[in-house]
Amino acid sequence: MSDNIIQFEIKDKKAYLEINRPKALNALNKNVLAEIKKCCDILKNNSSVHILIVSGSGDKSFVAGADIKELQELHNKNREGENFSKWGAEIFNSLEQLPQITIARIQGFALGGGLELALACDFIIASENARFSLPEVTLGLIPGFSGTQRLRKRLGTARAIEWIATAERYSASEAYTFGLINHVVKHEDLVFFTEQIADKIIKNSPLAVKTAKLVIRSGENCNFQEACDIESHQFGHLLNQAESVEGISAFIEKRPAQF
Ligand code: HXC
Q1: Ligand 1 within 6 A of CB of 25
Q2: Where are the alpha helices (DSSP H) in the chain?
Q3: How far apart are CA 247 and CA 100, in angstroms?
Q4: Secondary structure of 9-53 in HEC code, one letter for each residue
Q5: How far apart are CA 32 and CA 1, in angstroms?
Q6: Is the pTM of this model over 0.95?
Q7: Domains of the chain as residue ranges with CATH
Q8: At what angle do helices 224-239 and 206-218 cross, to 10 degrees?
Q9: Contact of 49 with 10, CB cutoff 8 Å
């Protein structure tokens, strides 16, 4: 990827997207956002990749937000601020809609747009040194990459309003208690632990895992009954696929399934 502001690698059914602007604490400038979009475009039709791990380079920061110097350039430019927000939100939607399971692997600061990026992933695994905040109101702004909505969905309305209105910075253990993140691990174990979770996912039927994500996420955009109907439809579809023939046969024959 251009200028190495993103390091993108595909290895053994896993893709790694690392934001690489450590001197700016991996802040998301327009070039970084455009590169994230390119990675999503590569991944969306790549069925050989089952997992995407998103990280930031260096120990100090996952991503410290949108690039504030670029935001300053948007002052009083009519609709450019709104357009920037919409453009970034569309990129994060592309990330959220990827067929792969996406994991945000977080060390250090996950602030503003950085936390919004993590929220667009399927789940978050964090080091004990991780710090989470949506501090936009300290800049006279609000989250603009759909963070108001994704944080509300994750934590509920009351906590989302408190988080955003106070701009409080939370530790990894607090974020875990609130249900923002799935795991907190010792800093030195972060990479290995994330790989272990990824490997557990990869061992399972790829089609079933992909379908499970699709069905779970479908519930975010329709009512309960519609989502359950999608679940039944997909369940039936999976029963007609080779992977469930293999999974069920393997169980009955008392051998590991080969997917
Ligand atoms: C641009 C940033 C940056 C950012 C840090 N840097 N965050 N540059 N945009 N978001 C740069 C600093 O300017 C500095 O560069 C270098 O990274 C190191 O940062 P320091 O501040 O010197 O480090 P430290 O004192 O350790 O403080 C770390 C920090 C602080 C607490 C994370 O940098 C900070 O508060 N950053 C801003 C966090 C924030 O408000 N994020 C939300 C942005 S708004 P130099 O060149 O001076 O060494 C947002 C909106 C999203 O995300 C929606 C848009 C539509």
Answers
A1: yes
A2: 30-44, 68-72, 80-96, 113-119, 147-155, 157-166, 172-178, 190-203, 206-218, 224-239, 242-252
A3: 20
A4: EEECCEEEEEECCHHHCCCECHHHHHHHHHHHHHHHCCCCCCEEE
A5: 10
A6: yes
A7: 2-202 (3.90.226.10), 206-252 (1.10.12)
A8: 170
A9: yes
Digit-coded pLDDT (tens) for 194-238: 999 999 999 999 999 999 999 999 999 999 999 999 999 999 999
Q: Closest Cα to residue 179, out of 160, 198, 199?
A: 160
Q: Judge if the beta carbon of residue 111 lies within 6 A of ligand 1.
A: yes
For residue 142, the CA-to-ligand 1 centroid distance in Å is: 16
Between the CA of 25 and the centroid of ligand 1 the distance, in Å, is 7
Sign of the alpha-carbon torsion through 88, 89, 90, 96: positive
| Residue located via tokens 């939607």 | 93
Sign of the C-alpha dihedral computed for residues 163, 166, 169 and 170 taken in this order: negative
Residue bearing the CA closest to ligand 1, atom 12: 24
